[in-house]
Amino acid sequence: MAPRPAKPPRKKGVSIYRPFIFGSIAKLIDPASRPANINADHTHQWTIYVRPCPTHPDLSYFIKKISFKLHETYTNSLRTVEAPPFEVTETGWGEFEVQIKLYFVPEANEKPQTIWHHLKLHPYGEKAEEQREKKEPVVSECYEEVVFNEPVETFYDLLTSSGGPVGRGKGSKGSKQASMGGKKAGQEERVAELPFNGTYSQKEEGKELDRLGQAIKTVELMVKEERRKLEEREKTLADLKSEDGSTAKAR
User: Fold this and answer.
1) Tell me: the pLDDT tens digits for 109-124?
2) Residue 202 φ then ψ, to 5°
3) SS3 of 39, please?
4) Distance (Å, rounded) from C-alpha 90 to C-alpha 92?
5) CA distances (Å), 23 to each of 99, 130, 134, 250, in order?
6) Whether residue 227 has pLDDT greater than 90
7) pLDDT at 198
8) How far apart are CA 189 and CA 118, in angstroms?
């Protein structure tokens, strides 16, 4: 039996991170300029993407390709993009979760990393009605970092030759695999959502959830009150039937 090939040496005690942005932009399809070849039910055109941060304008030196897993109703729902811009544009009518998988260059000797993004077609938050009236595009973006813990030496040289930042001690102790945001088992995902001109953010989402929660409580109280009224009507009807029966017997 041939001996196993030696594992490539790694840079001990070193973590290197690379930031990026992933998200989507969606806009209503204008009936006046609607392309003839799209589905009649589709209401929006959208693009989902992975893009570099302004301070690190290139991803291609460490990302080989990115796959986007769309909803199964789309033809060829698994779309793979092998060169920038890493994005997919489609049309549709509904929101859904998109699986995004990052594949690194061969020098990285790292497994692919997966993130998820909820494709948003409709505005949320306090300015939602204003956005709908103005028919503004709906943008949802998140900031993320991929952390290479103890990278292979050749990959370390590739990363550092780009002039990017070197570790901040975020990686898991003893870990030798790439991770998103340096997450440890049991920790929440480290993702920060970026508001688009203040139209949507995690804070706005919290407010929206609070409003929905209050609306649910209001509906529950209304249902409870209607149930009480129904029980009163049923009791009144039963009493009337009982009185009619007694009158009939007396006759």
Assistant:
1) 999 999 999 999 999 8
2) -65, -30
3) coil
4) 7
5) 11, 22, 22, 79
6) no
7) 40
8) 15
